[in-house]
């Protein structure tokens, strides 16, 4: 079980004395392989964690988006958040995103190797992160690239990861000790 300091402001829930949390952790492990610190930090409300994890499962595994678009969108939102970046950069690379593309994204730029649809999703995510104030032009480009279902999936993805980043920040969730920070300082 993670130490209290690793979860930030809230103590870890002891699975051995909290069967409801243990059951939710088991559900999460079935789809993700483990329970990250950020999800563990929500275990004081097991039913809330279950619902939140279910939302995350949808946006990670069941949308119409390609894995590459999904991970680029997540990382566009993760800029400045070491925890989220470190968790998702490896997934992005497994989906074919290069280190050079990650470096450009982290620096607030778009690599010339990105497709029009990838750029549209990133632009939407960046504007969405500013209080949901997406311009008509950005929305129209996303809709052109992905259609109504895709717009909905990108919007749900953005909403989930904005909420997750807020949890990380508010509860001061620390990166797992077995992970090496992957977000490079921007020069």
Please identify, by name, the CATH architecture of the largest domain. Answer: Up-down Bundle
CATH topology type of the largest domain: AhpD-like
The CATH superfamily of the largest domain is AhpD-like
Number of strands: 0
Determine and state the CATH class of the largest domain. Mainly Alpha
Question: Which geometry do the CA atoms define?
Answer: globular
Largest sheet: none
Please compute the radius of gyration using only Cα atoms: 17 Å
Please state the average pLDDT score: 94
Domains counted in the coordinates: how many? 2
Q: What separation lies between the terminal Cα atoms?
A: 37 Å
Please state the structural category: mainly alpha
Give the SSE order as H and E letters.
Answer: HHHHHHHH
What percent of the residues sit in helical stretches (DSSP H or I)? Answer: 55-70%
In percent terms, what proportion of residues is strand?
under 5%
Q: Please count the helical segments.
A: 8
User: Are there runs of 5+ residues with pLDDT below 50, and where?
Assistant: 1-5
